[in-house]
Amino acid sequence: MEITLNNAPATTVETACLVLGVFEDQALAEPAASIDAASDGSLSKLIAAGDINTDGQQTVMLHGLPGVSAERILIVGCGKADRFDRVSFQNACMAAGKVLREHTVTEAHICLAELPVESMDAHWRTRQAVFAFDHANYLYTTTKPLKDGKAQPLAAASFSGGADLQGALEEGIGLGIGFRTARELGNLPPNICTPIYLAKEGKRIAASYDNCSVEILKRRAMAELGMEALLNVGQGSSNPPRLVVLKYQGAAAEEKPFVFVGKGVTFDTGGISLKPRESMDEMKYDMCGAAAVIGAFEACAQMQLNVNLVTVVAAVENMPDGKAYRPGDVIGSMAGKTIEVLNTDAEGRLALCDALTYSERFEPQAIIDVATLTGACVVALGHHASAIMTHHDDLAAELEQAGAKAVDRGWRLPIWDDYQSQLKTPFADMKNIGGLPAGAITAGCFLSKFTEDMRWAHLDVAGSAWKWNANEGATGRPVGMLTQFLLDRQG
Ligand code: BES
Ligand code: MN
Ligand code: ZN
Question: Shortest CA distance to 267 belongs to which of 280, 255, 258?
């Protein structure tokens, strides 16, 4: 999508569609007020007649208003002005974006960043509007191309605002690119998006920016490092595992990097502890943690942020097979700790523990892993929040604030030592499952055993990474939270 700024008065912008927001309980403000004035009170008459629904997220398309250059006007109802917060602003932008996505128009001018949103400034409002319209106009077409004659996504959008908002535009574009990559990877079927495919995607991104590089570790290199846990997960698959290490240098070489680690289980059958057949297909999304860290990496490189970043993806497929690892196996790990595998479906933590140990070499300022780790997380928080687990209160606060700002929110769960007893076993240093109580937390506790010397946080995105009922697919979350976290930590 081509994204530009246009500072011309709303009445004079030549466009197929002008997008405006109106509140339920307020006199029309700019730019709606000048459209109303130019068109001899058309908007206020329609509102008074009840023909424009000003409730939150409702839209109306108007044609050929006199005195206005735009062919159409899309009005978005924004509800009550004093309840118009970041989330409702995002929802309003997404709702309008979706109408345009499903409409035959392929170009629009968007005047929503004028709306007052809590204490958020024009930079934030513009950035978020750009991102939301891009997000709403993403369409998965790789294995189902859009037919000729069908409504196309927007090809171009201009946003109201002058050159002072160019930085906001760039941020919105960067976020959009990162989210698109993450969503596309998530949506791709597991026969296309294999560990090798994730590695190729890493190579593509590294080749696109001068200050990026990539290193790909195959089985042999992983074995030499002692990554027994990760290798065991992949043993039953004919798609070999990969460790994808992306590096971005945006700050002085001696500055310690941030490290993002992603769970890239490209398909999770459960292995010998086979999952039930219902919805097993959804386990193609079990690499969404990897997709998000790759997307956040790309957003960071696109915005050329003033930080150093390393992204490590544990890409592996969990299949049942004669060679597969089994329940009861005791396996090692790169950290030297032994693990009793009591359920081969608790594979994410095994792949991640070695990727986390590997990441110690980067001496991270902070290390954040992202994983669709547990069904229990979905039970605990549903689909709206990503779970944040960390021993570091300051890091938890930084992630919570980043999530709130990017409208990609997280909520903290405790990982107190009290829970560690659930991982005890007489046969190894720990077992890979902690029983029914607090399943998301015991998974976090398992990972904490491998990150004791680092400033680490774990994000369980099992509920937030894709939409379950609607056929909207991968959300790209938490690319927003991660990218905002980096934006806020620039030197
Ligand atoms: N990838 C799943 C977690 C998952 C399940 C995410 C459903 C989203 C929706 C993970 O590998 C898994 O299977 N976890 C098990 C852990 C259990 C065996 C301790 C789970 O949550 O059931
Ligand atoms: Mn599993
Ligand atoms: Zn899994």
Answer: 280
440 and 325 both lie in a single domain = yes
* 372 within ligand 1 shell (Cβ under 6 A): yes
Does 175 reside within a domain? Answer: no
| b/e code 160-183 from CB counts within 10 Å (16+ = b) | bbeeebeebbbbbbbbbbbbbbbb
Give distance in angstroms: CA of 374 to centre of ligand 1.
4
Do 138 and 188 belong to one domain?
A: no
CATH number reported for the structural domain that contains residue 297 in this entry: 3.40.630.10
Q: List the residue whose alpha carbon is closest to atom 9 of ligand 1.
A: 375
Contact 449, 459 (CB under 8 A): no
pLDDT at 60: 94
Burial (0-12, 13-18, 19+ Cβ within 10 Å), 6: middle
Q: Which of 374, 436, 468, 477 has most ligand 1 atoms within 8 Å of its beta carbon, as the pocket-test mutant?
A: 374
Catalytic residue (one of 125, 247, 349, 431): 349
For residue 169, being part of any structural domain is answered with no
Percent of the chain with pLDDT over 90: 94
Q: Is 412 a catalytic residue?
A: no
138 and 187 share one domain: no
DSSP designation for 81: G
* pLDDT tens profile 121-131: 999 999 999 99
Task: Order the strands of the 258-268 sheet from edge to edge.
Answer: 212-217, 242-249, 308-318, 258-268, 366-371, 456-460, 386-390, 410-412
- Pair 220, 152 in one domain: no
**Which range of residues forms the domain containing residue 89?**
2-159
275, 326, 412, 455: which is the annotated catalytic residue?
Answer: 275
Q: Check whether residue 127 and residue 195 sit in a common domain.
A: no
Residues 207 and 304 in one domain: yes
Residues 203, 267: one domain? yes
CB 248 within 8 A of CB 149: no
pLDDT (0 to 100) of residue 133: 98
Residue nearest to atom 18 of ligand 1 (CA): 346
- Per-residue confidence (pLDDT) for residue 470, from 0 to 100: 65
Tokens 């319209």 locate to: 133
**Rounded (5°) CA angle 58-62-63:** 160
CATH of the domain at 74: 3.40.220.10
The pLDDT assigned to 491 comes to 82
SS3 80: coil
Confirm whether 167 is domain-assigned: no
| CB contact at 8 A, 52 and 46 | yes
Q: Kindly state whether residue 165 falls inside one of the protein's structural domains.
A: no
On whether both 131 and 230 belong to a single domain, the answer is no
Identify the nearest ligand to the CA of 314 by its number: 3
Structure confidence at residue 25 (pLDDT): 80
Residue minimizing CA distance to atom 16 of ligand 1? 346
- pLDDT < 50: residue spans in the chain: none
